[in-house]
Every structure is written in structure tokens, then in C-alpha cells.
Amino acid sequence: MNLILLAVHDIPSEHIAHLARLSSAARSEKIDEQTWRLCEAQQHDSLATFCFEHQIDYGFVAPGKTLADFGLVVMDMDSTLISIECIDEIADMQGLKPQVAAITEEAMRGEIDFSESLRRRVALLEGLDEIALQRVYDERLKLNPGAEVMMAALKANNIRTLLVSGGFLFFTERLKPRLGLDCTHANTLEILDGKLTGRVLGEILDAQGKAEWLVKLRDSLGLNPEQVIAMGDGANDLKMMAQAGVSIAYHAKPVVREKASYAFNFVGLDGLVRLLNHS
């Protein structure tokens, strides 16, 4: 396997040499100052600790494996494709961000059921003017670093994209044309007379729902799991990620990092392109 090293800073030559020794690599190849390939490398117990301490992301990739080998990328929205948790920012308009954010964190760590956590959080938004949603989109929603680079590469390789979120349709539907996403699915906030009622319409799109949408689109495209990549950051992404041949934990909770094929703790979303196009 080739060991691909990724960072947001220049990787010092002494770090490359140390990792080459640890992994018994046959040779080191510099892609650029922030990306290296260690050829014919092997896993070592000290790799993860050293890389984390020096803010280097890494992954073992089969030689010749590229993005072109995949047909579908499925991604979470909040804190994965975008840098915020939308519901926390909506709550901030009510002066309730700390209360809502605390419940969000519990759910993302897998400590409470996602559907129950969403109902509790949305209930706190009752009476908020719907214009707050547009303000969050206009003023606070930011794409995570590398999002547009990643999307351009996926399009160039004719890879279909699915944004599936336990968040809200209001935001996914605006991101869809902005980024050229193929499909999006999320939850719908109930709004009456211009104000949020504190309820979610229909069945809540939870962890199982995310997994089911992945499988549904994967099967409709005639793909096998090995041709699918799933990206997420929280516990409610684990079922979805388990249905993909490659799973990416993006700046994720420990429970997600432990189960993912690869963990991006430092690099942006363009890390997916760097990882798979330099194997």
C-alpha cells in the first residue's frame, strides 16, 4: 500500500524520514510541500500518534486507486460540508444557542437518540420569525475549506453527489444549486404565519434514514459499496458510512474517527482529492 500524507502546512523533511522508517516504506515521493506519498508502506502502531501530534492526516491507499474508481459521494451537511451547525445558529437568534448546542453535542457524540434530540432542539425555536433562517444562510453559513475544490473534482470524474442531512431542507435546497449537488434530503421545519412552530414536519431523517438514502441512490445507479464514499462527523453518520466502501471522518467526534476508513482531522474537504488522486 502507499501511505499518503496530507497537511495544511509544509511537512518537514525530518517528519517524512521518520514516517518512512516507521512504515518501512520503499521510497518517499513529494507531491507538493503539503502532500507526500510513501511507497510500499506498512502500518505501524506509532503512526497515528506521531501524525496527530504533528497535525498530519494520512491514509493507506492501494497504488493506482483514484477518484475515477468511484461513482457516488454521500455527505453530511452540518460541520461536514459547511462549517456550522445550522440549528445552533438559528437558536442564537433566540438567545438559546448554549442550550441547543449542548443537546447537539450530546447527539453528535452518540449519547442521546438523534430524533429525540432534534425534537427537543426544534421545540426551543417555537415562535422564531422564519426570516432568521435566511439570516443564518446569508450571514453565518460558510462552506468548509476545500469544498468547492472537492466538488469540482467530483464533477470532473462524473461522480454523483448526495447531501443527506439531519438538518433542514431550507439550507440543503439552497446549497444544491450553489454547488451543483445531484440530490439532497433533509428535515422540514413547520412554519405557520411566518413563525416556526417548534415542530418538524413528517418523519425525522435520522441515522437510519441517511443510510437508506445512500443505499437507495447507490442501487439506482447500479453501484456496489466499493464505489461509494461517505463523509460525516457525528454519530448519526455512522450507519450511512457503514454502507460505503470508503468512509471519511471529517473533523469528527472520536466515535466516528475510530470507525472510518480515513480521518481528516486537519486538512479541508479537498483532502479527499489529494488522498485518492496521488496514490
From TrEMBL:
It is an enzyme of class 3 (hydrolase). The active site is at D76 (nucleophile), D78 (proton donor). Its cofactor is Mg(2+). Keywords: Amino-acid biosynthesis, Hydrolase, Magnesium, Metal-binding, Serine biosynthesis. It holds the Pfam family Hydrolase. It catalyses: O-phospho-D-serine + H2O = D-serine + phosphate; O-phospho-L-serine + H2O = L-serine + phosphate. One of its GO terms (cellular component) is cytoplasm. InterPro entries: DUF4072, HAD-like_SerB, HAD-like_sf, HAD_sf, PSP. Its EC number is 3.1.3.3. Residues 3-45 form the DUF4072 domain. One of its GO terms (biological process) is L-serine biosynthetic process. It comes from the Bacteria. One of its GO terms (molecular function) is magnesium ion binding. SUPFAM superfamilies: HAD-like. Pathway: Amino-acid biosynthesis; L-serine biosynthesis; L-serine from 3-phospho-D-glycerate: step 3/3. The keyword Repeat does not apply. PANTHER family: PHOSPHOSERINE PHOSPHATASE. Belongs to the HAD-like hydrolase superfamily. SerB family. This is Phosphoserine phosphatase. It comes from Gallionella capsiferriformans (strain ES-2). The lineage of its organism: Bacteria, Pseudomonadati, Pseudomonadota, Betaproteobacteria, Nitrosomonadales.
